[in-house]
Design a protein that fits this description.
Layout: H1 4-73, H2 77-129, H3 135-165, H4 178-219, H5 226-249
Length: 256
């Protein structure tokens, strides 16, 4: 009994000490694990915060660049306005050019009729001298063309005055639409082709006017030698008539 008492007490103390130690270790383990977890959590939070700030710092330049691109893409207003202005100027130039071309066409039409009558008048004398027509036939042509002569000159004079009042500019317009540019080019070609015909028509129509005035003066007995005046006019007429005919034959231009 005495031998067993101390042994039992020691064993109980040992068991009790181990139990206490285990209990202490069991209590300290959660705290040891908690500290690393808290540290990891703090590190993760710092990393996430840094990443968010870095991303937000990068996004602003990207947004700024995006806005700059958007502004550049959405800013054709000046260009559009400039194009609209060029189109309007081109349309105005085209209308002006067409007015000039149409006015010149009216002069050419009047000259075609007038010079035609004058050429027939001159040719009648030539054919009569050559024996190809009779004197009566010649006089019939003279009477018909002379009666038309007054209207020839009035029509030509009005058309020429209207033509001279038009500016008729067919200048190119930068930035004009292709269709307007093409139309202006056609009008410009026609206007250029009209000029030599207009220039050739003027002397022939002037010859016709002078002869009409001479005939009027002869009927009013204001000319003492009407036959000599007529012979002079008849001989001077062919070069101007032929120049006009040659100009019309070479006239080839698109419609405006």
């Amino acid at each position: 009994m005495l031998g067993s008492g101390p042994g039992t007490g020691t064993q109980d103390q040992t068991i009790s000490g181990e139990t206490v130690a285990k209990a202490r270790r069991a209590k300290t383990r959660p705290s040891r694990m908690l500290i690393p977890l808290l540290a990891l959590t703090l590190v993760a939070a710092v990393v996430i915060t840094w990443q968010v700030r870095a991303d937000s710092g990068r996004s602003e330049p990207q947004d700024t660049a995006g806005r700059a691109v958007a502004r550049a893409t959405a800013s054709p207003t000046p260009t559009a306005g400039s194009s609209a202005g060029s189109a309007a100027r081109a349309e105005q130039a085209l209308r002006s050019c067409r007015r000039g071309v149409d006015a010149a066409d009216a002069v050419l039409a009047a000259a075609r009729t007038g010079v035609g009558h004058w050429a027939a008048h001159v040719q009648a004398q030539t054919d009569a001298d050559a024996g190809e027509i009779t004197v009566q036939q010649k006089n019939a042509v003279f009477g018909r063309t002379r009666r038309a002569g007054s209207d020839d000159q009035s029509r030509y004079r009005r058309a020429k005055a209207a033509y001279e009042r038009t500016d008729g500019s067919c200048a190119r317009v930068a930035g004009a639409p292709a269709s307007t540019t093409s139309a202006l080019a056609r009008c410009r070609t026609r206007a250029a082709a009209q000029r030599p015909v207009l220039e050739a028509a003027a002397p022939a129509m002037q010859d016709w006017r002078h002869h009409l005035e001479a005939m009027m003066a002869s009927r009013m007995h204001q000319v003492s030698n009407p036959d000599q005046v007529w012979v002079h006019d008849w001989r001077a007429a062919p070069p101007h008539i032929e120049a006009y005919v040659a100009a019309t034959e070479h006239f080839d231009a698109p419609r405006c």
